[in-house]
Amino acid sequence: MSETIDLISAAFAKTETGQQEIQQRSLGLSPMVRRILVLVDGQRCGRDLATFATGSDIAAILGELVDKGCIQARQREMPEKSDRRVVGAVAETPSAAREADTFLTRLPPAAERTAAQNEMARNFMINTVNTIFGQHTRLSLIESIAHASGTDGLRQAFLGWKEAMTENRAGSKRLPEFMGKLVAVL
Fold first, then answer.
1. What angle do CA 55, 60, 65 make, to 5 degrees?
2. pLDDT at residue 88 above 80?
3. Does 48 have pLDDT greater than 90?
Protein backbone atom coordinates (compact mmCIF):
# COMPACT_ATOMS: atom_id res chain seq x y z
CA MET A 1 0.00 0.00 0.00
CA SER A 2 2.77 2.48 0.89
CA GLU A 3 4.55 1.76 -2.43
CA THR A 4 2.12 4.01 -4.32
CA ILE A 5 2.54 7.05 -2.04
CA ASP A 6 5.32 9.60 -2.35
CA LEU A 7 6.28 9.32 1.30
CA ILE A 8 8.48 12.42 1.24
CA SER A 9 6.14 14.88 -0.48
CA ALA A 10 2.77 13.67 0.79
CA ALA A 11 1.12 15.26 3.82
CA PHE A 12 -0.19 12.75 6.34
CA ALA A 13 -3.10 12.60 8.78
CA LYS A 14 -3.78 10.15 11.59
CA THR A 15 -6.48 7.56 11.02
CA GLU A 16 -8.81 6.31 13.73
CA THR A 17 -6.38 3.42 14.24
CA GLY A 18 -3.56 5.96 14.66
CA GLN A 19 -5.55 7.92 17.23
CA GLN A 20 -6.25 4.70 19.15
CA GLU A 21 -2.57 3.71 19.00
CA ILE A 22 -1.57 6.96 20.67
CA GLN A 23 -3.95 6.20 23.54
CA GLN A 24 -3.50 2.41 23.87
CA ARG A 25 0.01 1.61 22.55
CA SER A 26 -1.24 -1.76 21.32
CA LEU A 27 0.80 -2.11 18.10
CA GLY A 28 4.20 -2.19 19.78
CA LEU A 29 5.67 0.68 17.76
CA SER A 30 9.31 1.60 18.36
CA PRO A 31 9.86 4.92 20.16
CA MET A 32 10.93 6.70 16.93
CA VAL A 33 7.93 5.40 14.96
CA ARG A 34 5.59 6.39 17.80
CA ARG A 35 7.20 9.84 17.95
CA ILE A 36 6.53 10.40 14.25
CA LEU A 37 2.95 9.16 14.67
CA VAL A 38 2.40 11.71 17.42
CA LEU A 39 3.81 14.47 15.18
CA VAL A 40 1.57 13.65 12.21
CA ASP A 41 -0.93 16.51 12.09
CA GLY A 42 -2.47 16.50 8.61
CA GLN A 43 -0.27 19.41 7.51
CA ARG A 44 3.31 18.12 7.67
CA CYS A 45 4.70 16.17 4.76
CA GLY A 46 7.33 13.44 5.03
CA ARG A 47 10.05 16.00 4.30
CA ASP A 48 8.91 18.09 7.29
CA LEU A 49 8.65 15.06 9.56
CA ALA A 50 12.19 13.98 8.59
CA THR A 51 13.58 16.84 10.68
CA PHE A 52 12.23 15.04 13.76
CA ALA A 53 13.77 11.70 12.77
CA THR A 54 17.41 12.62 12.31
CA GLY A 55 19.46 9.52 11.61
CA SER A 56 16.38 7.43 10.79
CA ASP A 57 14.83 6.56 7.44
CA ILE A 58 11.65 8.65 7.40
CA ALA A 59 10.31 6.82 4.35
CA ALA A 60 10.57 3.48 6.19
CA ILE A 61 8.89 4.93 9.29
CA LEU A 62 6.03 6.47 7.30
CA GLY A 63 5.69 3.27 5.25
CA GLU A 64 5.32 1.26 8.45
CA LEU A 65 2.69 3.65 9.80
CA VAL A 66 0.75 3.57 6.51
CA ASP A 67 0.97 -0.23 6.31
CA LYS A 68 -0.31 -0.56 9.89
CA GLY A 69 -3.20 1.79 9.08
CA CYS A 70 -2.13 4.49 11.55
CA ILE A 71 -1.80 7.29 9.01
CA GLN A 72 -3.00 8.08 5.52
CA ALA A 73 -1.78 10.45 2.86
CA ARG A 74 -3.83 13.59 2.41
CA GLN A 75 -4.45 15.19 -0.94
CA ARG A 76 -2.36 18.33 -1.26
CA GLU A 77 -4.07 21.21 -2.94
CA MET A 78 -2.53 21.93 -6.31
CA PRO A 79 -3.39 24.78 -8.64
CA GLU A 80 -5.73 23.98 -11.47
CA LYS A 81 -3.97 22.39 -14.44
CA SER A 82 -4.33 25.60 -16.40
CA ASP A 83 -2.54 27.49 -13.57
CA ARG A 84 0.65 25.43 -13.49
CA ARG A 85 3.41 24.34 -15.75
CA VAL A 86 5.80 21.48 -15.27
CA VAL A 87 9.53 22.10 -15.33
CA GLY A 88 11.27 18.75 -15.08
CA ALA A 89 9.39 16.97 -12.33
CA VAL A 90 8.48 20.17 -10.46
CA ALA A 91 5.06 21.80 -10.84
CA GLU A 92 5.29 25.55 -10.49
CA THR A 93 2.76 28.32 -10.52
CA PRO A 94 3.26 30.81 -13.35
CA SER A 95 4.61 33.51 -11.00
CA ALA A 96 7.18 31.13 -9.46
CA ALA A 97 8.19 29.98 -12.93
CA ARG A 98 8.57 33.57 -14.13
CA GLU A 99 10.70 34.40 -11.08
CA ALA A 100 13.01 31.42 -11.72
CA ASP A 101 13.19 32.29 -15.44
CA THR A 102 14.06 35.90 -14.58
CA PHE A 103 16.83 34.76 -12.25
CA LEU A 104 18.26 32.39 -14.85
CA THR A 105 18.16 35.00 -17.62
CA ARG A 106 20.18 37.42 -15.47
CA LEU A 107 23.04 34.95 -15.29
CA PRO A 108 26.03 35.17 -17.62
CA PRO A 109 26.08 32.73 -20.57
CA ALA A 110 26.85 29.18 -19.47
CA ALA A 111 29.95 29.09 -21.68
CA GLU A 112 31.53 31.83 -19.52
CA ARG A 113 31.39 29.73 -16.35
CA THR A 114 34.46 27.72 -15.36
CA ALA A 115 34.58 24.20 -13.96
CA ALA A 116 35.63 25.71 -10.60
CA GLN A 117 32.54 27.96 -10.58
CA ASN A 118 30.34 24.97 -11.44
CA GLU A 119 31.83 23.05 -8.52
CA MET A 120 31.24 26.01 -6.18
CA ALA A 121 27.61 26.27 -7.35
CA ARG A 122 27.12 22.51 -6.91
CA ASN A 123 28.62 22.56 -3.40
CA PHE A 124 26.63 25.65 -2.42
CA MET A 125 23.30 24.11 -3.46
CA ILE A 126 24.06 20.78 -1.73
CA ASN A 127 25.25 22.51 1.46
CA THR A 128 22.15 24.72 1.64
CA VAL A 129 19.89 21.69 1.20
CA ASN A 130 21.72 19.87 4.00
CA THR A 131 21.59 22.98 6.22
CA ILE A 132 17.89 23.70 5.72
CA PHE A 133 16.52 20.14 5.59
CA GLY A 134 19.15 18.19 7.51
CA GLN A 135 21.52 15.47 6.38
CA HIS A 136 20.04 12.40 4.71
CA THR A 137 16.88 14.16 3.54
CA ARG A 138 16.01 15.41 0.07
CA LEU A 139 18.40 12.79 -1.33
CA SER A 140 16.92 12.83 -4.84
CA LEU A 141 17.46 16.59 -5.03
CA ILE A 142 21.03 16.26 -3.78
CA GLU A 143 21.68 13.51 -6.33
CA SER A 144 20.30 15.61 -9.18
CA ILE A 145 22.58 18.49 -8.15
CA ALA A 146 25.60 16.23 -7.67
CA HIS A 147 25.13 14.54 -11.05
CA ALA A 148 24.32 17.72 -13.00
CA SER A 149 26.63 18.03 -15.98
CA GLY A 150 28.08 21.46 -16.61
CA THR A 151 26.52 24.86 -16.09
CA ASP A 152 23.36 24.06 -18.04
CA GLY A 153 22.75 20.94 -15.94
CA LEU A 154 23.26 22.89 -12.73
CA ARG A 155 20.84 25.55 -13.91
CA GLN A 156 18.22 22.83 -14.49
CA ALA A 157 18.92 21.43 -11.00
CA PHE A 158 18.53 24.98 -9.67
CA LEU A 159 14.80 24.85 -10.44
CA GLY A 160 14.31 21.87 -8.10
CA TRP A 161 16.58 23.47 -5.50
CA LYS A 162 14.61 26.73 -5.57
CA GLU A 163 11.28 24.89 -5.33
CA ALA A 164 12.53 22.93 -2.28
CA MET A 165 13.74 26.11 -0.58
CA THR A 166 10.43 27.85 -1.30
CA GLU A 167 8.43 25.01 0.31
CA ASN A 168 10.37 25.26 3.60
CA ARG A 169 9.79 28.09 6.06
CA ALA A 170 13.48 28.63 6.90
CA GLY A 171 14.50 28.08 3.29
CA SER A 172 12.03 30.62 1.93
CA LYS A 173 13.22 33.23 4.44
CA ARG A 174 16.84 32.75 3.39
CA LEU A 175 16.15 32.27 -0.34
CA PRO A 176 17.00 35.86 -1.38
CA GLU A 177 20.32 35.60 0.49
CA PHE A 178 21.06 32.19 -1.05
CA MET A 179 20.18 33.33 -4.56
CA GLY A 180 22.35 36.43 -4.14
CA LYS A 181 25.33 34.23 -3.35
CA LEU A 182 24.50 31.66 -5.99
CA VAL A 183 24.30 34.23 -8.79
CA ALA A 184 28.06 34.78 -8.47
CA VAL A 185 28.89 31.22 -9.54
CA LEU A 186 25.85 29.78 -11.33
1. 120
2. no
3. no
